Amino acid sequence: MTTDISDYAIIKEGEAEILMHAKNQVFYNKTQVNNRDISIAVLRAFIEKRKEEHVARLSKKTKTAPKVSEKDASNSVVEEVSNESDIIDEKTNGDCEVAAEISQEEPCSGSEELNKVTEGKGRVELKPPRVLEALSASGLRALRYAREVEGIGQVVALDNDKVSVEACRRNIKFNGSVACSKVESHLADARVHMLTHPKEFDVVDLDPYGSPSVFLDSAVQSVVDGGLLMCTATDMAVLCGGNGEVCYSKYGSYPLRGKYCHEMALRILLACIESHANRYKRYIVPVLSVQMDFYVRVFVRIYSSASAMKNTPLKLSYVYQCIGCDSFHLQPIGRTVAKNSSVRYLPGFGPVVPQECNDCGKKFNMGGPIWSAPIHDQEWVTSILSDVKSMKERYPAYDRISAVLTTISEELPDVPLFLSLHNLCATLKCTSPSAVIFRSAVINAGYRISGTHVNPLGLKSDAPMDVIWDIMRCWVKNHPVKPQPPDQSGTVILAKEPVLQANFARAIASLSKAQTKKVARFLPNPERHWGPKLRAGRQITSKHISLLGPDAVNGVLNHEEDEEHNAKRQKIEDHPTPN
After folding, report:
1. Cis peptide bond upstream of 369, omega within 30
2. What is the pTM for the complete model shown?
3. Residue 267: exposed, middle, or buried by beta-carbon count in 10 A (0-12, 13-18, 19+)?
4. 247 with 254: CB under 8 angstroms?
C-alpha cells in the first residue's frame, strides 16, 4: 500500500512520529501527551521493579531450599527443569510466575537448582514484558512504548475500527525497523481479545474515549499475576456527580458533588476495578492515581489470592456529606477482629453519623462505596519522580508531570478526600486565613496536614471535623463577621464555643519541601483549547471553535473547500462541455 506523504501532517511526540490526515478520521489528542508521558514513566519503573522482584524470588529459593545428598539433588533438578519447561511452554510469556512454578516439595539443593536452570536452557530468565494497548487509534502510544521504554517486549495494538488499524499499521511502517519488530496491530474487539488471552499480558493499557467500565471485566483477567493495569476515564461529568444514577450503573458507586469530587472520581474507579478483580479471586494494589486535565488515570498491580481478597471490605467506605457545611465522614464497609492467631471478618460498625450534622444541624447525603485505602505507593512515586528528573529531555511534558508527581509525593497517603479552605470560609461568611496560618493551627493542635495534587486549594488532614471547625471559630473570634440569619449553617456553627483553643503561631512544617524550595506544583495549560477533542469520524464544523480553536477549525474547513474545488475542476476536465 503506497502512501502519499503530502496528504498527511507529520506529528512528532517523544521519539515517535505519526501521519495524521487533515480529516478527523482517526482520533488524536495533543493534550494527552501528559497521559502518555506519565504512563511511560510508570512503565519504566514497573520493568525495573519486576526485575528486582524476580531476582529476590530466585535468591529466596536459593536460601530456603533444603540440603540433601548430591544424588537426590541431581535427580530432582532434572525433574524440576523438565516440569518447568512444560509449564513455560504452555504460557505465552515468561512472566513473574515462572519462579513460583518450581516445586518446593522435592528435596534438592537450592544453589545447584539455580545454576542448572539458569545455565542449562535459560528457562528461568525473565522475558521482556508484553504490553496490550487495547484501544490504539493512531498507535502513537504503542509506538512511544516500543521506541522509548528500554527492556520492553512485544506491544499489541488493538482497535475495532478498520480506518484506525490501517492508520496504525501505516504509522508502524513510518517509524522504521524498531517499531516494525516490536509493535503489531490487529483489527479486533478489545473485550473479546482480552477474554481469549487470560493472564497473557504483563501490562494492559485502557485509554478509551469516555468510560472504561465495559472493558474492566476482561482487562482484569488478561493481566498476569503481579502485572500492571493502566486505566483512564474521561467521563468526568458522570464520575463527579453530574449524573449520579449513570455513575452508579457504570461503576457501582454513587458520587457526591463536593470540592473533593475529582479525588472521589479516582476512588470510585479504583473501587470498580477492585470489584471486577474480586470476581476472579484477584485484587488490586494501586501504585499511582492521577487526576489531570479532563480525566483520571490509575495504575494498579493485579494479584491472585483468595485469602488476600477477603480484605477488600476493609478498603472500601461509604461517604456521608453534610448538605449544610463541609463536614464529611467515612463509613468503612468491613472490620476485622483478631483472636489468638485467627482473624474474623465482620461488617463495619455504623452509622458513623447521626441523622443530623453535629456541626450545623443539617441532613447528610450518602455516596459511595469508594476506595478509602491509599491510592499511591509512595516508594513508587519517589522512584518514578527521580527517574523522570534524571531523563527530563525524554519527556515532552516534563514540567507538568514532574509538578504533579512532586505534589503527589507530599500528599498524606492514608487520608481519603480533602477539605477546601475557601469553602469553610464561605460557610462562615468570614475572611480566609492564609493556607500557612491554617496549616500551622492544625499542626499545633497535634494533627497532620498536606496539600493534594487534585486541587491547589485542597487540604488533606487527619484532624476530625470538630477540630477543624474549632480552629475556624477561633479565627472568626479574631476576625469578626457580620450577623447572619439564625437558620444559616455558619450561624449555627459559630454559636458554639470552641473546645480547642487554636494556636496560629507559624509552624515549621506549615510549608512543604516543594513550597520551601519554590518548586512549581500547579502549572497553567501550555496553550488555549487544551482539553478534550471530538470523537473520531465526526465532521468538524464552525460550532467546534470553542473546543478546538479557530486555527484548527479553519484549517480543516479550508482543506475541505480546496478538496471540493479540486474535485469540481477534475470533473470539468474529464467531461468538458460541448461547444
Report:
1. yes
2. 0.84
3. buried
4. yes
What would the pLDDT profile of 391-429 be if each residue is shown by its tens digit? Answer: 999 999 999 999 999 999 999 999 999 999 999 999 999
Please write the tens of the pLDDT for every residue from 255-302.
Answer: 999 999 999 999 999 999 999 999 999 999 999 999 998 999 999 999
Copy the grid coordinates of residue 377: 505507593
Task: Report the 3 state secondary structure along 193-254.
Answer: HHHCCCCCEEEEEECCCCCCHHHHHHHHHHEEEEEEEEEEECCHHHHCCCCHHHHHHHHCCE
For the chain, give me the number of helices (H) and strands (E)?
20, 17
Cell of 189: 474487539
Pairing of strands 155-159, 183-187: parallel
Q: 137 and 169 in contact (C-beta within 8 Å)?
A: no
Secondary structure, 3-state, 461-481: ECCCHHHHHHHHHHHHHHCCC
- C-alpha 557/C-alpha 542 separation (Å) is 8
* Reduced DSSP (H G I as helix, E B as strand, rest coil) percent helix, strand, coil of the chain, to 5: 45, 20, 35
Q: Hunting for cell 486541587 — which residue is that?
A: 455
- State the virtual CA torsion across 437, 438, 442, 445 in degrees, nearest 10: 60
User: Are 410 and 514 a contacting pair, CB within 8 Å?
Assistant: yes
318, exposed or middle or buried, with CB in 10 Å at 0-12, 13-18, 19+?
buried
Tell me, what amino acid is at 403?
A
Closest of 267, 257, 217 to residue 237, by C-alpha: 257
